[in-house]
Amino acid sequence: MQNSTEIMSSKPEFVIVPGAWHGPESFKPTSDLLSKEGYTSHGITLPSVGANPQVQSFTPDAEATKAVLDKVLSSGKDVVLIYHSYGGVVGSEALAEYVKEGPKPGWGKVKRLVYVCAFALPEGSSLMAALQFKPLPWFILDKPDIVEAANPQEILYNDISPQSLVDELISKIQTHSYPTFSSQLTVAPWKTIPSTYILCEKDNAIPIFAQEGMVAAAKAMAPNAFDTVERVDASHSPFISQPEWLAEKLVKAAQ
């Protein structure tokens, strides 16, 4: 019989890829709950967030994600990747070698991908292509190669309270390197790796119809894609507004 230490060590570990403008600390309300359940989480710090000078493609973000992923897998641990928003693009690209060549002998495996209101796109696409090459109305593009979010309370945190928490969250938002939105994906890992999509119905950044459209398009290309779809009455940031609900779904994804 396994003792408690052996059971905990056998659990997969989470690798969290945040969205644009955000650092991994934004996931803390949820990752703290995962920790209480005995799970280890690794948050990715994206080079495109708060960059100076700006990065000119999503490659640094994908490489930063791959470096953490490789470190965990090489330790023999299985991994569940969590993608939020833009993180779905660079997190997918980080798996290019894994998808094309397969897991390395003796390494752990990627157990599941979880797209939390994240971009799930096919090969050859980009975030800007998904937006029909038009910046969203709430993009602020006043500085060269930099995109900022107008009215983040309405767009990103519209179901979060109290106001003091919203103000704190807004104070931590950083600039984002706009050229990363034009980089094209070379892989679509959701075609072959078991994947979950978290649909967020109150999302004002990626509206629910756009999320549903990406899932439908994925299933049209690969019928087994997104074998699990969860729906929550939440904004673009359920890891802050509904951490208990999301942590429960993430634990389910890891089993």
UniProtKB/TrEMBL annotation:
Pfam families from the UniProt entry: Abhydrolase_6
Domain of life: Eukaryota
The AB hydrolase-1 domain, residue ranges: 14-248
Name of the protein described by the UniProt record: AB hydrolase-1 domain-containing protein
Species this chain originates from: Phialocephala subalpina
